[in-house]
Fold:
Amino acid sequence: MIDLHHHLLPGLDDGSKTMENSVAMAKLAAADGITHVVCTPHANGKYVYDPAVNEALVVEFRDLLAADNVPLTLGLGCDFHLSYDNIQDAKDNPARYTINNLSYLLVEIPDYGLPRGLTEIFYELQLAGMTPILTHPERNPTLQSDMSRLEEWLRGGVLIQVTGDSVRGSMGKAAEKMAHQLLTDRWVHFLATDAHNVTSRPPRLSEAHRIVSKKYGADYADMLCTTNPRAVFEGKPMPQQEEPRNLYDEREEKGFFSRMFSKLTEK
Structure:
């Protein structure tokens, strides 16, 4: 399995605090069946985000894992927050933020509420060559109360990552309910751990994979945990997906992405 969202690097944010703790997290991940991890420190106003520092840590960490015979392949990205400065810089320097400096971008929305103009922001990031991956929408109370907000983003090409622990039910009942509705409708493209430590938020994915396999099919589980994240890790186009449900119904009013597409095709 390939974990696209993991706060593994030490001392950068609210994830791992020490290299020793990072090694312990890596060992737990490998024991759980995870073969690849994208290290995704926060890129926001609270923590310093420096790709050069992050890359140096990854190089050091790879050597430690190799010396300890931990079979884990590391990549690098970030947990991208939608501040004005971040958005402007990402449009000018996409590879500074994307996973493995390629084309996919993890985008995290606030714990509560939604930024204004989010649909337009996604569109601008796409115009700059990035494919946004919206992280754990099932944990946002605003979206929990109105899942329809996701429809236009999905129709416009935004991808969805759900936290494995939400599927298991350890992120709360509301997150669990929404996660399973998203899975039922095939609106989910990735499962990831969003691991921060070895205790309250450890790197575990196999149980969520098992649940999805049992309830929604083994092929879908493998796609969410291996096939799709591998495409992201390697910067390749997404493979053929299962047909989403309740997404492409005819609407009386066109959304933002539909209007923009119509304008483009009229030219």
